[in-house]
């Protein structure tokens, strides 16, 4: 994982100083990432690049409560909704063949699961255009609806409260990852 992230961070990153990574265990992984990179003989990360850790919404709810506000995409500045937990969406399809696969020998079971996953990947590939267009339309409509709702709230809120809320948000964003009360997972 360290090597993959370091190599990815060096590809077409000129002028980019901030990258958001999503990983199921980022609350633990990111704690010592820079130390591991600095100690690694084959690892190199641009020093100006700030890695902002996130955990997908499907996984973060299984963590401690403190992980939600620190790592959920809802609270990372500049991030909206993401579609980053693809592996879990494939489990339902594997459930269809799991009763049949239970009685198979290991090589036959592997062949059957490989076939199912390859078929799933092929179907995703040929439906990608339609899926991406559908997701784009949903996002575009979501932006419009969210903008209207925000404008209604913004007009109704007193100016002095908006100023106070913005100040509190800046404080929360700056201390989101540096919460000393958060206990590491054991």
From TrEMBL:
InterPro entries listed in its UniProt record: KDZ
UniProt-listed Pfam families: KDZ
Protein name, entry field: Uncharacterized protein
Organism the protein comes from: Suillus discolor
